[in-house]
Amino acid sequence: MDVNDINVCVLRIEGTNNEQEIFESFKRLGSNPSFVHLNEFSSLEDYQCLMIPGGFSSGDYVRAGAIFSSRIKSMFWDELLQFVKDGYPVGGICNGFQVLVELGLLPGFSRNIGKVNACLAQNDSARFECRHSVLKHISSKKCAFTKLLPEGEKLVVPSAHAEGKLMLPDEKMYQRLEKNGQIVFKYCDQNGDIEAGYPWNPNGSPHNIAGICSEKGNVFGMMPHPERSFFSENENGHSGSTIFRSVIGYIGERF
Amino acid sequence: MSDVVEIDLNVSDEELQIISDETGTGLSVQELRTIKEYFQKEGRNPRDIELQALGQAWSEHCCYKSSKYYLKKHLFKFDAPQNLFVIKEDAGLVEFDDDHAYAVALESHNHPSAIEPYGGAATGIGGILRDVVCMGAQPIALIDPLFFAPPTTSSDMIPKGVKHPKYIFSGVVDGIRDYGNRVGIPTIAGMTAFHKGYLGNCLVNVGCVGLVDKKDIIYSRVGNVGDIYVLAGGGTGRDGIHGVTFASKELDDESQTSSRSAVQVGDPIMKEPLIHACLEANEKKLLTGMKDLGGGGLSCVVGEMALAGGYGAKVDLENVHLKESNLAPWEIWVSESQERMMMSVDKGDLDEVLSIFKKWDVPAVVIGKVIAEKRLHIKLNGKEIFDLDLEFLTEGPMYKRPVKRIVLRNNKTEYDEPGDYNETLISLLKDYNNACDDWVIRQYDFEVRARTVSPALVGKENFETHADASIIKPLEDSNRGLAMTSDVNPFLMELDPFWGAASAVDESVRNLIAIGARPHSFADCLNFGNPEKPEKMWEFEQAVQGLAHVIGKIGATFVSGNVSLYNEGPAGACPPTPSIMGLGIIDDVEKAITTPFKENGNLVYLVGTTKDEMGGSSYLRSRGIRGGVVPRSNPYELSNASNALLELMGKGKVMSCHDISEGGIACSIAEMCIGNGIGAKVALEGKHRRDVELFSESNTRWVCEVDPSEKDEFEDGIRSHQVALRLIGRTGGDSLVFTSENVPLIDIGVEKLMNTWQRPLWDIMG
Q1: Which of A247, B470, B617, B687 is the least buried, fewest Cβ under 10 Å from its Cβ?
Q2: Domain harbouring A220, CATH code
Q3: pLDDT in tens, B473-508
Q4: Cβ atoms B448, A160 nearer than 8 A
Q5: Angle, vertex CA A46, rays to CA A41 and CA A50, nearest 5
Q6: Using an 8 Å Cβ cutoff, are B62 and B25 in contact?
Q7: Interface contact flag, B450 A58, Cβ < 8 Å
Q8: Is residue B63 domain-resident?
Q9: Domain for residue B21, yes or no?
Q10: Of B575, B647, B255, B589, whose CA–CA distance to B406 is shortest?
């Protein structure tokens, strides 16, 4: 389908606060984003992409993303599951990633989509930290949001969160993610070393994971903010914008 | 709901004082006599709610009764063509481009933060956001100048009733972080100063800038008779009772317990949708006026909005939605509960306004309407409980308080040169006042909204150094940027309030120029001691004159501000602290200049003249020497140098630039080395003694990095504006070297500079 016909639902509730920059990222590339307040949500029928922005949905006073995800579940869970199964892309950045994990859409093993088996735990520093992270693109094949980003490419993307450590129940599950090609971004230093440690890995995430996708590749979440580095091109001309270009390209080809 | 009580004012002066104390209104006996006369004419006694309303309206905080005489005399006489609507409202409005204006507000939340640092600072952010939103502007940036006693202060130095500065510092930063980050407005600039005079009176100043389409500008006044008052946002509770009267007196060792209820409780997740809803209703042209509920709560907002429109108001108090039951009517009327906005709405638009608030899950209720007569009537369940002339209520007294000159210790002092210059520089970089602030900065989301094109930390990832100012690019389709900085040096202020204040403006200007922005407007938050003490009033007048000395000649003026007096506690008064927020315009953000050196082999220039002005310097402090001449500021030289640098920066002739302030040229160049890990070799001039050249904090100076191929053009460009200039060295290598007569005086590796400068706050704060 043509880029002009691609409609993106940018979902907001009280406390989501990165919706404007996600909106603009899609708008700049010629697609049609709309802000949809959960109170005004009717259906995903007219949309080809759902984005959950960052922020502090409902204050995040319970657990990051917990309230937003349970409100989504109570309002349109079945429709959302179908949307995902049909291959439409769903993206979450920062708090949006936390929401997708709380929903069980990520890690999103095809066998049991919707089963909550991960969480984004408090940073090792036990505080909110805002710093520029260097990310290394790990899997180039599967994720709908990074199709245009070559394997191994490094991007500088701002991190700003207090709970970004991706915790899974056991080491086996990390290996499964690795094996399935679901790990999309890892933190690294300026030379691309993923074992560089803090502050390059700002939160202590095991295996330095910054972003993952579902087994099918159409659900994607990451802690750093590519919408904030839309214009910061690296030496190969890639920037945060590549993420948005990729998903628009994916929709264009598939639907 | 409890009843309204009548208060008999026909009593002796002693008893009037007792009435003031018991009601907590903070009114003086003289003021109560004026009120007594008013009510004698009315033929009755005041009710408690009326007296409380007068106490709020006539507080120092609300009516500036001690400061307004001096502000009018010295500071409000300047104007600039870009000013659209300044001083008169909660925020000043200045032209951004043909279609847009920006709104600027800066105020203090000092007393609440001293009592309850987390809540005090958080609600400071909440309040300043509302000041900008009520002009119809979308907040785009927050700025926080903070002042504490050193976090290393020993516990036995802490007087009774005072909290440890480390606890206060940590709590304040947590409060700003949790509120600012949650509400999604980037905290992009600020400053942190440590001085023992802030023990017991920390200063928490909060600034906000917003952007508004000129056609959406709205004012804090009602439109027409018959307009409906709509109160939106959080419920009214018992938090924040007497906030303004508490802010208008000194803190004592009982304040920690007696004034706890004066601190409000913040709820950013009410604020975030409240901002959206207010702006949506305004953009749809459904409002005739809007004002936030800040100091004094309903009692200030209803009357001020009505009177500003030339009318009066009628209120039904039972309609106000409450957080808790059993509030006395006067408590509802003066409560400063957070997250509340007042709007005046034409009757025909009321339903649409209410439905917008419903969509955003924000409570909104009708509480009254605008009447022609300039009086305020309040009814509670149909029974009249309040009837006052609005001009009498709102005007407030104005005092010309006496001043008494203090003998300053600001003469030239004698001292020896230090033994080891390497160690001296290291100790200056470790000083909490000079060291890296990233322990603070990184707790704030400085890039939310994705409009921060140059943050407060610049350089290679995780090697960043301090920026002179931060830049926001507020519009999607324009490269025009708004630069922001905040400055004041309490050590200069305590030695010489006139030149200290002049230096604060000079530094603000330098910081804006250093990144390539033209100074465009300023806001001031004047934090001083008890104005009833003539020495403190003198400090205030001196500082205001010092600000005026520079501000009148640089093409930009103060457009907004706030006065916070009575910053005194059990440990004494705070140093006089006029914190200045400077805003600049940069036509093309792509041309912004940053602090760190960019390449090896470039030329390093000193622009401006170093003088033997060591008073209050970081260097003399490190040597334990008080006194000395405080740096002067010549606004004409400042203006010439600014024009010269902006011209060259516009042409791309400057690769990096940093202003020279605390720690002198030595610390300034050290910070330029840090961001990208590039060293420099710099030769001293030999005009002054070596420590003076390295560490003098003379105003109106910058260090610039210039490509050798641009040498002639750069030098001609500076000299054509009659500005002093000297080529002092070259960039390159792994260390920072200062030589005197070709002999190295300082030689420190850049990595060591970085580690020394970066660690101090992390080491003490964790």
Answers
A1: B687
A2: 3.40.50.880
A3: 999 999 999 999 999 999 999 999 999 999 999 999
A4: yes
A5: 65
A6: no
A7: no
A8: no
A9: no
A10: B575
Looking at the 3D structure of chain A, how many domains does it have?
1
Tokens linked to B414: 């004698």
Least confident range from B241-250, B254-263, B384-393, B455-464: namely B254-263
Query: How does pLDDT run across B549-570, given as a tens digit for each residue?
Result: 999 889 999 999 999 999 998 8
Residue B80 to chain A, least CA–CA distance (Å): 33
Which of B612, B616, B694 lies closest to B418, judged by CA? Answer: B694
pLDDT digits (tens, 9 = 90+) for B179-199: 999 999 999 999 999 999 999
The pLDDT confidence band at residue A62, using thresholds 50, 70 and 90, is: confident
Q: Please name which of B490, B729, B731, B725 lies closest in space to residue B595, comparing C-alpha atoms.
A: B731
Give yes or no: B61 in active site: yes
What single DSSP character describes residue A162?
S
> Which residues in chain A are closer than 8 Å to B446, comparing Cβ atoms?
130
| CA pseudo-torsion sign B391, B392, B396, B399 | positive
**A14 to B269: CB separation less than 8 angstroms, yes or no:** yes
Q: Does A242 touch chain B (CB under 8 A)?
A: no
Determine if the peptide bond prior to A199 is cis (ω within 30°): yes
Query: Which H or E run includes A95?
Result: helix A95-103
Give the CATH number of the domain where residue B277 resides.
3.90.650.10
Per residue in B242-284, pLDDT (tens digit) is 877 777 788 787 776 666 666 777 788 888 899 999 999 999 9
Phi and psi at B183, nearest 5°, equal: -80, -10
Which amino acid is residue B400, in one-letter code? K
Would you call A232 an interface residue with chain B, using a CB distance cutoff of 8 Å? no
- The Cα B447–Cα A107 span in angstroms is 28
Pairwise CA distance, residues B125 & B144, whole Å: 9
Place of tokens 């659209």: B84
Mean pLDDT of A50-70: 91
| Helix-strand-coil split of chain B, %, nearest 5 | 40, 25, 40
Residue of chain A minimizing CA distance to B455:
A131
Nearest Cβ partner for A158 among B183, B272, B447: B447
Judging contacts by C-beta atoms under 8 Å, the chain B residues touching residue A37 are 359-360
Q: Is A59 within 8 Å of B182 when comparing Cβ atoms? A: yes
CA of A228 vs chain B CAs: smallest distance (Å): 5
Q: Mean pLDDT across the stretch B504-531?
A: 97
Residue A112, chain B, CB below 8 Å: the answer is no
Number of domains comprising chain B = 1
Contact B447 A17 (CB under 8 A): no
- Residue B322 has what DSSP assignment? B
The answer to the question of residue B437 being in a domain is no
Do the strands B375-380 and B312-316 form a parallel or antiparallel pair, or are they unpaired?
A: parallel
Q: What single-letter DSSP state applies at residue A16? A: B
**What span, in angstroms and rounded, lies between the C-alpha atoms of B469 and B702?**
14
Place A94 in a pLDDT band, splitting at 50, 70 and 90. very high
In whole angstroms, what is the distance from residue B604 CA to residue B729 CA?
Answer: 5
**Confidence (pLDDT) at B88:** 84
Q: What is the pLDDT of residue B466?
A: 97
Could you give the dihedral angle defined by the CA atoms of residues B256, B261, B262 and B264, in that order, rounded to the nearest 10 degrees?
Answer: 120
pTM of the prediction? Answer: 0.95
- Domain range holding A169? 3-254
What is the Cα–Cα distance from A141 to A144, expressed in whole angstroms? 9
Cβ contact (<8 Å) for A58 and B269? yes
CA–CA separation, A119 vs A184, rounded Å? 17
Chain B hits for A201, CB-CB cut-off 8 Å, are: none
Would B216 be classed as within a structural domain? yes
Structural domain that includes position B301 = 81-395
What is the C-alpha to C-alpha distance for residues B676 and B529, in angstroms, rounded to an integer? 43
Q: Tell me whether residue B109 is one of the annotated catalytic residues.
A: yes
For an interface test with B, which of A10, A12, A14, A41 has the most B Cβ atoms less than 10 Å from its Cβ?
A14
Bond preceding residue A107 cis, omega within 30 of 0: yes
